[in-house]
Amino acid sequence: MNAVKKAGAAKRAPKNCPAEISPARKVSFNVLLAVERGHSHSDDLLRGKAVNALSAADRNLATALTLGVLRWQILLNHQIHLLLARPNAKLDPEVLIALRLGAFQLLRMDRIPARAAIDESVELAKQAGHRFASAMVNAVLRKLAKAKQVLKEHDPEGHSTEEMEAHPAWMVTRWINFYGLEAAQSICRHNQIQPALTVRIASPAVEAELSAVGVVLESGELLTDARAVISGDVIATEAFREGRVRLQDEGSQLVAELASRASKNPNEKVNRILDACAAPGGKTLILAERNPQSHLVACESSAPRLEQMRKRLVHLGDRVECRLADTTALTEDAAFDLALADVPCSGTGTLGRNPEIRHRLRVEDLARQAERQRTILTAAVRAVCPGGHIVYSTCSLEPEENEQVVAAMLAASPFARLLPLADRIEALCKEGILTPEGTERLRGSLTPEGCLRLLPGAFHTDGFFIALLERMA
Question: If DSSP states are collapsed to H, E and C, what string results for the chain?
């Protein structure tokens, strides 16, 4: 009997031997910690070496964990602190991340076993140097696991305000004031769901090619060249590697399509195009495809982003000049027929894709963004020749960055006027670029001034604002 006991004991790991942590949870923990410390952004880190080294299944789990925690962080923090012995206690970042990871899996991921979520979160805290705090992590997560059923019973059909509570209160209040309660609720729901993967295909033959290798696509919501990926790994395909299918949000594609047809006269020749804030180059590619006779100048103020864009556009040869330049410092006057100013912004239209924006953005940041946006738009207007067109766009939901920027620029400049986008939308429909259903929906999304606003939730896209201007003299 003693020999049997000794043999069994030999098979068990020593008490001080670290428990195994799954690669996905370990990578997610490190990404979230880097974001918490302000070292980088999740979208960059999730494309990094550590994530790419994972298996496909672990890569998907790491992404789901990371973005899920960031989406629900405000609510997770509240639920965690309610269960602390001292609810106002300030926790070390490593402990807080371990708690958030465990809480998210327990409360939001039904397929994750509670034991795995709890045990690996405890071990993450230990291996991060917080052995004494690991007992607290274990206790809090076990309480959350018991409370999960109570939470479900409290709201059995999911009719809750949790999606709104997962956003900063100041953001939600603004959206209610600007767009109404129903639209604000829809925006918040959209932001809490992983966005659909949308691609642009070069031709119908590409869709057949992808289908043959197990990639299932669905027609786009607005554009005939857009597709939603339903299943399959499109990134692993030869079509993706060769650029015949590209990842790009459908709203982003629409911005470039409208810019490509900015002139009311479809026969008007566009010789020179300025893409004022071009990286990563997705809109530049569409501009080049729709205007094969044109020369494009693609500006980017970040050297690393410029280099990445240059590699992406290399197949276009001399047709595109990738220029390291801050658009606000451009000296060209009346040098271009068309300019696209897709300006840097707060990104509140992309919270579903970039959830940590909600944690670092402050309302006072909007005025700073708007000042730079006005300067870029003014430079873009100056850069086009009389009769030339400028498309101004943001992925922001905030009027300070949208209507108010356009209005302020027009008030300060006698050389530009705002044009309604309705005619351009109809033209894209006639050319077969917009679907009839998409055209009808876009008609209903025009502002009183004739600009276009895509609200997340109303569309399965990122949020966008698009305005069309013409230089007068």
Answer: CHHHHHHHHHHCCCCCCCCCCCHHHHHHHHHHHHHHCCCCCHHHHCCCHHHHCCCHHHHHHHHHHHHHHHHHHHHHHHHHHHCCCCCCCCCCHHHHHHHHHHHHHHHHCCCCCHHHHHHHHHHHHHHCCCCCCHHHHHHHHHHHHHHHHHHHHHCCCCCCCHHHHCCCHHHHHHHHHHHCHHHHHHHHHHHCCCCCEEEEECCHHHHHHHHHCCCEEEECCCECCEEEEEECCHHHCHHHHCCCEEECCHHHHHHHHHHHCCCCCCCCCCCEEEECCCCCCHHHHHHHHHCCCCEEEEEECCHHHHHHHHHHHHHHHHHEEEEECCHHHCCCCCCEEEEEEECCCCCHHHCCCCCCHHHHCCCCHHHHHHHHHHHHHHHHHHHEEEEEEEEEEECCCCHHHCHHHHHHHHHHCCCEEEECCHHHHHHHHHCCCECHHHHHHHHCCECCCCCEEECECCECCCCEEEEEEEECC
Strand partners, 338: 273, 389
pLDDT at residue 150 in the model: 64
Angle in degrees, CA 405, 471, 392, rounded to 5: 35
Spacing of C-alpha 275 from chain mean position:
21
The yes-or-no verdict on residue 2 having pLDDT over 60 is: no
Q: With a cut of 60, say whether residue 370 has pLDDT above it.
A: yes
The burial of 364, by beta-carbon neighbours within 10 Å (0-12 exposed, 13-18 middle, 19 or more buried), is given as exposed
Residue 115 pLDDT exceeds 50: yes
Spell out the domains of the chain, with CATH numbers in brackets. Answer: 18-158 (1.10.940.10), 250-471 (3.40.50.150)
Residue 285, Cβ neighbours under 10 Å: how many? 25
pLDDT at position 11: 39
Local confidence band at 158 (pLDDT 50, 70, 90 cut-offs)? low
Portion of the chain with pLDDT greater than 90, in percent: 85
pLDDT recorded at residue 151: 59
Tell me which amino acid residue 291 is. Answer: N
pTM: 0.92
